[in-house]
Write a structure and sequence with these properties.
heterodimer; A: two-stranded antiparallel ribbon; 15 helices; 4 strands; 3% strand; globular; B: mainly alpha; two-stranded antiparallel ribbon
């Protein structure tokens, strides 16, 4: 049996490496025909696994059997990513943005996916986190490492404030409250003088760690990597934490409770679930994720303005969750990465970006409402 | 005192716009129990239809061939018709597939449809990202009564809105199709059993709602003299807010809700020092207040959920 396991491990790592190589070469591809042929290949893969579902199941079983090895291999490969993009900081920038949106989408997933609360205020918590830590850093020289907790905390507090009116409302009314909240925050950010108004806040200092500023190139093993690499590792760390939190929550009683509320609120209440408390919890956790992502964004770009936190950002994050597969942590990550990377690869069609987002949502909802990676039923195995 | 009168006229004008949009929301909610979040964009689309038709008329020399007082009503009628059909088309496309699906689906789908409409307008219009100048289709002379300035175009806007709303009420009250609309809104299944053609009634409902919305778009354009592709988002949220404040599903509520929002906004801008940039904030706070303390709106009845 040891031989079988060894062979499987080799196969698994080879598969991961192959997929990674595919991703890197896709990112490095410049010409449109190359990008399109890569996409065609991905679509072909999708159809292949749809047609031969057994191949997909075998693959999934392989990954499930060697969860630890798969995770370690995946992490190592991702850590190597910046070395491949050494010459093109722009690609690392895309990866950092993808990481940010992964955090935002994972946060929203607690509400939209797990609890069926359609929250259109993601941009608001994103913006509140960004502005809080940026203002603290610019005016009071508070370090990024403290600011990230304050930013997340303040965003979380606003999530709580938003949560209260939302408890009295549901469905359309609730969405209206969140849309109104997002617009209120946007209007306030644009009009207050102490937030810099429409001009925003410039010159936000970069984080430092042990005397090394994150805006200086990173030097490892005698190689000089562009400064974006610092933020790549930073966001990798935070996205990893977000992923673990999301995964643990999903498999905990809290996640189960959220799903119960999603399926039938009244039935959940009859089971003795404190629906209000669990919904507010979802609001606060989502807002905390948003606040953390906002803080990292503010210190990464060094400049924020209300335009970065407009209504459309919320819709984009909602799109990511729906495209990936609601309530499926893995699917949501894929959705976030896809929707960040694809528009950047098609920069020639930059103008069509929002049109594409809108069309994707409508088409997905009509033809595949469960998303690319639908959440499977929970299976509880007796040990 | 004159100040209050002056501001009241502004409030009425803004309220009229919101009412026209809110009626659409109420009609759709009554017919299908859905909220059509892209309705605001359909309304602004109406204003862009005017731009297109006006441009076409100019191109073919119709503008000088027909006297203005005939041309303008024709133009507006054509716009309402075109936008009405567009509304029916959008219902087929994006709302009908979700008739049996959970609420969340149609909610997100219509928000996404709003983006698609906005972006389509922005991309197809030359310099679509910039504000478009709206043709002066209404007379602009003004006169004053007792110190209150009255502009002819504003009076026309008020009069037209009043006429349209009255016509719609008469239509819904007295015609066979109107009765069908009311029946479907009361109980869709029972209406089906009485032999009412559901799909046709829904189509008529969307036709009326979108046509009235187009009128709102035209009035917004005529009032501001410019029109921008992204006005639909705010217009839609405000219209929906008006519908909710009045009582969602209640067509009369739309009038009250629209006026409440109009007055809140105008008076906040006029009488709260430094309040002008924050008018929308006040409006939304009022809406949230209503949602929390009277979710069924001013005219709505309290709904008890059956298990």
């Amino acid at each position: 049996m040891t031989d079988g396991r060894f062979g499987k491990a080799i196969l698994l790592l080879a598969l991961e490496a192959a997929f990674f190589a595919l991703f890197v070469s896709f990112m490095l591809a410049q010409e449109t025909w190359k990008i399109v042929s890569f996409l065609a290949f991905f679509v072909f893969l999708g159809f292949f696994f749809k047609k031969w579902a057994r191949a997909g199941e075998a693959l999934a079983r392989l990954f499930r059997e060697m969860k630890g090895l798969a995770a370690v291999g995946f992490i190592l490969l991702l850590l190597l990513l910046p070395f491949f993009f050494q010459k093109s900081p722009y690609l690392i920038h895309i990866c950092v943005m993808a990481g940010l949106f992964v955090i935002l989408a994972l946060g929203l997933n607690f509400q939209l996916g797990s609890t069926n609360v359609v929250n259109f205020a993601t941009a608001a918590s994103y913006g509140i986190g960004a502005y809080t830590s940026a203002l603290l850093a610019v005016h009071y020289h508070i370090s990024f490492w403290l600011g990230i907790f304050i930013g997340g905390g303040v965003a979380s507090f606003f999530g709580l404030v938003l949560g209260f009116p939302c408890m009295k409302t549901k469905d359309y009314y609730l969405s209206l409250v969140t849309i109104a909240f997002g617009l209120i925050i946007y209007i306030l950010l644009t009009n207050f003088s102490w937030t810099g108004g429409p001009n925003g806040i410039p010159n936000i200092p970069a984080p430092t760690l042990g005397g090394h500023s994150f805006r200086e190139p990173l030097q490892i093993f005698g190689l000089t990597l562009p400064f974006q690499t610092n933020f790549f590792y930073l966001i990798f760390f935070f996205a990893g934490i977000a992923l673990i939190v999301a995964h643990r929550l999903h498999h905990s009683r809290v996640g189960l409770t959220w799903n119960a509320i999603r399926e039938d609120e009244i039935a959940a209440r009859c089971q003795g679930i404190d629906v209000t408390w669990y919904k507010i919890l979802a609001f606060c956790i989502d807002a905390f994720f948003g606040g953390v992502a906002g803080t990292v964004y503010a210190h990464y770009i060094g400049f924020i303005s209300p335009e970065n936190f407009a209504f459309i950002v919320s819709v984009v994050v909602v799109t990511m969750v729906i495209l990936g597969g609601m309530d499926n942590v893995f699917g949501v990550i894929v959705g976030a990465v896809l929707l960040t990377v694809l528009p950047e690869k098609f920069r020639a069609f930059e103008d069509l970006r929002l049109l594409m987002y809108g069309s994707i949502v409508v088409l997905m909802l009509i033809f595949r409402p469960q998303g690319l990676f639908p959440q499977k039923l929970r299976i509880y195995i007796k040990k | 005192m004159t100040e209050i009168f002056q501001q009241s006229i502004n409030a009425l004008l803004i309220g009229c716009n919101y009412t026209l949009i809110a009626i659409g929301f109420n009609l759709f909610f009554g017919a299908l129990n859905v909220v059509h979040f892209s309705h605001g964009d359909v309304c602004i689309l109406g204003a862009f239809v005017v731009l297109i038709l006006y441009g076409l008329a100019k191109f073919f020399g119709l503008l000088n061939a027909i006297p203005l007082y005939i041309f303008i009503p024709l133009l507006i009628l054509a716009t309402m018709l075109v936008t009405g059909f567009l509304g029916v088309f959008f219902e087929r496309l994006v709302i009908r597939p979700f008739r049996q699906a959970p609420l969340l689906m149609v909610l997100v789908a219509t928000v996404a449809l709003g983006i698609v409409i906005r972006e389509a307008v922005r991309l197809t219009f030359p310099h679509g990202s910039n504000p478009q100048i709206f043709p002066r289709i209404l007379p602009t002379f003004s006169f004053s009564i007792g110190g209150v300035m009255l502009r002819a175009d504003n009076l026309i806007i008020l009069g037209t809105t009043f006429l349209l709303i009255t016509a719609m009420f008469l239509f819904i009250k007295n015609t066979k199709v109107g009765t069908a609309i009311r029946a479907v809104s009361q109980d869709g299944e029972a209406a089906l059993m009485m032999g009412i053609r559901m799909d046709r009634t829904v189509a008529v409902t969307f036709m009326i709602g979108s046509a009235l919305g187009a009128m709102a778009g035209v009035l917004i354009g005529a009032y501001n003299n410019i029109i921008r592709y992204d006005m639909g988002l705010m217009g839609g949220v405000k219209g929906f807010s008006a519908a909710v404040v009045g009582g969602l599903g209640n067509v009369y509520g739309a009038i009250i809700g629209g006026l409440v929002l109009g007055f809140v906004e105008t008076f906040a801008a006029a009488f709260i020092p430094g309040g002008t940039p924050y008018t929308d904030v006040f409006a939304f706070l009022v809406v949230i207040f209503f949602l929390v303390f009277r979710p069924s709106g001013i005219l709505g009845e309290k709904v008890y959920e059956k298990v």
